[in-house]
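Hey forum,

I'm writing up a methods section and want to include a predicted complex as supplementary material. The small molecule is flavin-adenine dinucleotide. I've pasted the protein sequence and the SMILES. Can someone with a working setup run it? I'll credit the forum in the acknowledgements.
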Amino acid sequence: MDYQGRVQELNRAFTGGGGQTVRLKKRTTSNLFRYHGRRSPAEKRISLSGFNHVLNVCEESRTLEVEGLATYGQIVAATLPRGLVPTVTPELRHITVGGATVGIGIESSGHRDGFVHDGLVEADVLLADGRVVTCSPDNAYADLFHALPNSYGTLGYILRAVIRLVPAQPYVHIRHQRFHTVREYLAAMEDAVRRGEDDFIEGLVFGRDALYLTRGRFTQRATTAPDDIYRTIYYRSVSRRTTMLLPTDQYLFRFDPDWFWNIPDTGLYRLFRRLAPRRLRSSAFYNRFTGLRAKARESLRIRPDTRTEKLIQDWEVPWTGAEQLLDFALDRVDLAGQPWAAVPIVPQSRATLYPLKQNTLYFNLGSYCLIPRVPGKEADFHTRIMDEECLRLGGIKMLYSSSFFDPATFNRVYNGSAYDALKSKYDPDGVFPTLFEKATGLR
Ligand SMILES: Cc1cc2nc3c(=O)[nH]c(=O)nc-3n(C[C@H](O)[C@H](O)[C@H](O)COP(=O)(O)OP(=O)(O)OC[C@H]3O[C@@H](n4cnc5c(N)ncnc54)[C@H](O)[C@@H]3O)c2cc1C
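Reply by user p_vandermeer:
Happy to help. Structure tokens for the complex are below, copy them as they are.
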């Protein structure tokens, strides 16, 4: 069945809400990470899992036509052999193009190409009333197009997208450089952005004295034997090596085999790393495994872990606030030896619901792990203090994880008035949850 056939089949099956809230059901694992489960009993699930095909790679226009639930693993497998990759490729193979567009995908190419959604050319969106409309920056649905980023499926679901591609080469040559002060580190990162010579810029910060800046450039030929991230632990190599050469596919998904730094470097896992087939060395597998383990613990009534808390979040501040945010994070949050991830990012457009300034340098800071809990403090203490500091510095945080904002703050930060108008226009009956409900779990 082709794309149009799938749309017709969906039209027959999708009958709107009928008083229920509708949410997405899919086959691949989700990267939405709420600390507490929040599914409402009145929820109806709509399966879009069939919309997972790569439709067309156009080398001439450097664009890709792809269905919304295709993963970046599939996308890169289709485009890289033709010397092209998306402008921004999220680092986990199973993130989908639809999910990353509505959920603010970022990567180390963000200093040139902004966010995932900045590479969107047009999209077909399933609306709450069952219509499928094509939106682009300058057609009758331009308001929807500009509101897709940070909408998390609350205005409609992307069934098909056309995205921009950029030229790629078979390898990425990487240099890791250590810095010993926050100020020098950020100056070097900013300088790298201004020079514009690198294809990829990012950082891992292990502590005040161990700040690593990683710069990558595409290269056509391997002058030495390439490294292999399935034989090493990538994030550990950053502090142990000064240069690396990775096949481009491995570079793009360098954090996938160890789910960033969430797979412990202990006996059993070492054995797993050595023996498991590569397809199991993926964040999708670990994601499922930890989900099943959590369910098993729950059904066996094993007491929840009260010694750790989740800190899985991303914050963006204007570059002028970068030093303060990083200082605050290093002073106030103990990641127990795990790194902070840092990315310079220059938004290429103004997204209605993620209102950052276009063509302006921002500093993205992320934490993707469990950390020690402060005795006597609530389980989301560190998320709350980081959120507060980020907002104080004029920044914004991504909403793929838990959020604890009150409605007034939420509306101020995420352009609530524009959202309300769009929600009334595209989902007047509330078939999909609101962004506030989805992000905070509150009504
Ligand atoms: C541990 C972790 C690591 C992450 N790492 C990265 C990273 O390396 N790079 C990066 O860019 N981002 C990263 N993210 C953020 C991630 O890009 C977003 O959470 C994104 O929304 C996930 O997309 P998904 O395809 O996994 O969709 P899901 O997690 O299944 O869904 C995310 C949200 O998008 C909605 N949605 C999904 N598909 C569609 C669609 N077709 N149309 C409309 N709405 C849709 C869902 O309803 C849901 O609200 C990470 C998140 C986590 C929790």
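Some notes you might quote in the supplement: The first helix runs from residue 3 to 13. Residues 3-168+420-440 form a domain with the Uridine Diphospho-n-acetylenolpyruvylglucosamine Reductase; domain 3 fold (CATH 3.30.465.10).
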